[in-house]
């Protein structure tokens, strides 16, 4: 008996998509476009945020209050800073960092904090440098070793010790001052000024106007040598001791000037 083979039906490929499938396909196509548009919109909002907030301001900032009393900064200084261009904006539109930068342009201001108080006021905290020495006879040095200036009519610096040196060395000179001052106190000597040249060579002046030329390196043994030889120095009549040069490995040289 002959066998009959029946052909299996072939699968049918659908060419028409259903409505949900067409929707998903269309969404996958436009999704990257939507993401790009959202990013552009977000950037535009971020970039124009301050401008939009400034539209809410009815008037510019009109007044300020200091959180504590200042020693060197006057109300005229503060008003002058706040009146600089560009003009003050309102509560929402005013950039706080811009105001901080204005105050820090005053040489004697060490740090500043500015806070906006709604609707049109500022709260200002000013931290000032405290002068501890004169610098190169023209400027001042702060407790942090920062060189700054003050109007001469606001502070008498004549009683301060004198520092000399390259401007970039102010912190190093200040640190050396405290160390040498402490060393001299134990020897009943008073330090009046200190200087360092561009080669790192040191010299100091005592309160009796005698200059000690210490040179480079450790100054302690040189100061000890001065204390040892000072009582033995014979000073000619009508003259006084001007300097003691201790830069030698042993001994020292001295100089005199007319009284």
From TrEMBL:
Residue intervals passing through the bilayer: 26-46
Pfam families: FtsQ_DivIB_C, POTRA_1
Gene3D superfamilies: Cell division protein FtsQ/DivIB, membrane protein fhac
UniProt KW keywords: Cell cycle, Cell division, Cell inner membrane, Cell membrane, Membrane, Transmembrane, Transmembrane helix
UniProt name for this protein: Cell division protein FtsQ
The organism's taxonomic lineage, starting at the top: Bacteria, Pseudomonadati, Pseudomonadota, Gammaproteobacteria, Pasteurellales
Example GO BP: FtsZ-dependent cytokinesis
Membrane topology: Single-pass type II membrane protein
InterPro entries named among the record's database cross-references: Cell_div_FtsQ/DivIB_C, FtsQ, FtsQ_C_sf, POTRA, POTRA_FtsQ_type
Family per record: Belongs to the FtsQ/DivIB family. FtsQ subfamily.
PANTHER family in the record: CELL DIVISION PROTEIN FTSQ (PTHR35851)
Oligomeric form and interacting partners: Part of a complex composed of FtsB, FtsL and FtsQ.
GO cellular component, one term: cell division site
Top-rank lineage group of the source organism: Bacteria
Predominant localisation class: membrane
Occurrences of domain POTRA (ranges): 59-129
Subcellular location: Cell inner membrane; Membrane
Function recorded in the entry: Essential cell division protein. May link together the upstream cell division proteins, which are predominantly cytoplasmic, with the downstream cell division proteins, which are predominantly periplasmic. May control correct divisome assembly.
